[in-house]
């Protein structure tokens, strides 16, 4: 699994925080949830595992309404945390400390987005005694894995993404989502944090349109009775 990159004060690289999520739905379901006005992604895969520094669908507000677009997961890393100032950037996948200046530049409505998902993963804390790897656990709203959204931010960025072996210079459109305290369901697996999850159209509307004083109230744990552990993401049928 790719290593998580997360900016947390002076630290990047908090292994275990959500660095893999799953989307198993169709564009019509997303359209119905958020009243899309246009779609620029083409056909959406019937099942999509999303990893850091890879493209994924997001919904953002534009002058023409709500757009479903495909952006790359991982906001720009603070320059002081790159190996060298000109090193390729693999990005920061999730954001906790929104009071830090680096993130405050993207908290306005023009840089907010929501990220569709049906399940997300966290690594357990205790490695498997045989494989020596930490087990991967999955979470969804319930066993049917209905659609929800992460509260996200996005930006256009000029620079080099990827790695020294496979650099991708140019202009990029990037996103990340916010995290918050872990609730009682996630805490036994990952005690520090969980993604900020929006489960209805009213919350999505607030996140995409309200000023930050109102929108920041959504950076809170999802109530424990609205989240479940699941065996694995759903496989599409039909």
TrEMBL record:
Top-level taxonomic group: Bacteria
Coiled coil: none
Molecular function in Gene Ontology: hydrolase activity
Range of residues in the leader sequence: none
EC number: 3.4.-.-
Alphabetical keyword list: Covalent protein-DNA linkage, DNA damage, DNA-binding, Hydrolase, Lyase, Protease
Pfam families: SRAP
Keyword Secreted: no
Family as reported in the entry's similarity comment: Belongs to the SOS response-associated peptidase family.
PANTHER family to which the protein is assigned, alphabetical: ABASIC SITE PROCESSING PROTEIN HMCES, DC12-RELATED
The name this protein goes by in its record: Abasic site processing protein
């Amino acid at each position: 699994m790719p290593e998580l990159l997360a900016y947390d004060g002076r630290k990047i690289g908090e292994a275990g925080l959500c660095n893999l999520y799953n989307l198993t739905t169709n564009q019509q379901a997303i359209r119905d949830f958020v009243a899309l006005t246009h779609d620029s992604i083409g056909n959406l895969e019937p099942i999509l595992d999303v990893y850091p520094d890879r493209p994924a669908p997001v919904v953002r507000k534009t002058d023409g309404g709500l757009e479903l677009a495909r952006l790359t997961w991982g906001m720009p890393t603070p320059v002081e945390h790159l190996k060298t100032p000109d090193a390729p950037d693999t990005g920061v996948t999730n954001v906790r400390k929104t009071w830090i200046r680096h993130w405050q530049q993207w908290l306005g409505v023009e840089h907010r987005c929501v990220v569709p998902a049906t399940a997300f993963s966290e690594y357990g804390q205790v490695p498997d005694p045989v494989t020596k790897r930490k087990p991967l656990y999955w979470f969804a709203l319930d066993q049917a894995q209905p659609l929800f959204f992460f509260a996200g931010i996005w930006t256009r960025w000029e620079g080099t993404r990827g790695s020294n072996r496979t650099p991708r210079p140019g202009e990029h459109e990037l996103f990340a989502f916010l995290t918050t305290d872990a609730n009682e369901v996630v805490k036994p697996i990952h005690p520090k944090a969980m993604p900020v999850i929006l489960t209805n159209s009213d919350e999505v509307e607030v996140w995409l349109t309200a000023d930050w004083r109102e929108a920041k109230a959504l950076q809170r744990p999802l109530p424990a009775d609205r989240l479940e552990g699941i065996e694995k993401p759903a496989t599409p049928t039909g």
